[in-house]
Amino acid sequence: MANSDLVEIIRNEIGANGPISFARFMELALYHPDRGYYASGRANIGRRGDFFTNVSVGSLFGRLLASQFAEIWEKLGRPRDFKIVEQGAHDGVFAADALSALRRSAGDCFAATSYCMIEPFPIWRERQQKNLREFAEKTSWVASVDEIAPFVGIHFSNELFDSLPVHLIVSGGVANGATVWNEKFVTLEHGLSAGAPSGVKLRCPGARFIFTSANVSRFNLQLDRLGFFPAGFETEVNLAAPKLMSEIAAKLSRGIILTIDYGFSRTEFYSLHRSQGSLRVRANQKKLSSPFQQIGLADISAHVEWTTLAEVAQSSGATPIGFTDQHHFLTGIISKSFPEADFDAAEKRALQTLLHPEILGRNFQALALGKDFRETLSGFHFARDPAAALGL
């Protein structure tokens, strides 16, 4: 099963132009304006959805992060114009939870706060506006980072960078003292890449789309520093993530970029035991075996390579001030802001999910990058030195 219209769009592009990079395939599968998994509004998150994330546990995640936001506001000197920019906000429930918590527990910060959502897709903007209608005077929307004026405050994202399109590469072995890298491209089975018979329909999973490969040199500089990779070693290179981080850091005048996602430092990301890469395809809480299954109806993601994001942010003046797993990040917030909190039964269950090492606690990490801001945040009270943890 797949979105047949989207399959036909991809097929026609390959037929007209030849094989496409996997990054382009992923871009179409997720973000085609009318048919893509995210752009069309089909993305379904939660226990009954395609995948599960922090916001799925209930309002506690927003409550905990609101406390961290308020602390950042305090350490910035309590600015009167404090902007929280969220990107990749899905249906806006996190924003509603965070603003509700600020209004309830940090009234002065709430009064100074405006909340801006970066949302390019109308269907998600409509859902966000519905969930944030009681905060209409506090909220605004833009379609891209480019539309934001330089601001003081926070850029926040939860599972944003993992959903950006990636290039797939595979080692062809070592030659002349260096690893030979090939990029995997998406094409059609022989005989269908051009001049397919009229009326031919592609049927997924996977019967018609296949991978082909070609030598590539544009990624070598980043990987050659890490040593040699044996033939067959597969991994991803994300060019969109550092570009976006650079754009975000350029817009932040003073404050924090705080992003939560799942990934590894560069050394771990490209370690030899991770020879199959990190690409994941999920639908209905199940892992699919191929990105060519349920095209337009399934989520496609890859782990974040954190070190490169931190390096790019540094080049725009944003310094890593914290990096740790979610368990230690949330534990730090709780120890500072909720030392004697009497969580109810539902919140305790949510907390167990957020903190448990085998669920979300160790799989997710939090990275904070400060611009004209070098103070330690409570979320990183139990963290290692970020430069050391990231391998900078």
Folded structure, characterized:
It contains 14 helices and 17 strands. About 4% of the residues have low confidence. Strand 12 and strand 13 form a beta hairpin. Helix 3 crosses helix 4 and helix 8 runs parallel beside helix 10. With 392 residues, it is an alpha/beta fold.
List the helices and strands and how they pair.
Layout: H1 4-17, E1 20-21, H2 22-31, H3 60-75, E2 82-87, H4 93-105, H5 107-112, E3 113-118, H6 122-131, E4 139-142, E5 151-158, E6 167-175, E7 178-188, E8 209-215, H7 220-224, E9 234-237, H8 240-251, E10 252-261, E11 263-264, H9 266-269, E12 280-283, E13 286-287, E14 299-301, E15 304-305, H10 306-315, E16 319-325, H11 326-337, H12 345-355, H13 357-361, E17 365-371, H14 386-390
Parallel strand pairs: 2-3, 2-5, 3-4, 5-10, 11-15
Antiparallel strand pairs: 1-7, 6-7, 6-9, 7-8, 10-17, 12-13, 12-14, 16-17
Low-confidence stretches: 191-207
Strand tally, please? 17
Radius of gyration: 22 Å
- Which structural class do you get from the secondary structure elements? alpha/beta
The CATH first-level class of one domain comes to: Alpha Beta
Q: Alpha-carbon distance between the termini?
A: 44 Å
Main beta-sheet annotation: 7 strands, mixed
Strand content: 15-25%
Number of contiguous helices: 14
* Annotated CATH architecture of one domain: 3-Layer(aba) Sandwich
CATH structural fold name of one domain = Rossmann fold
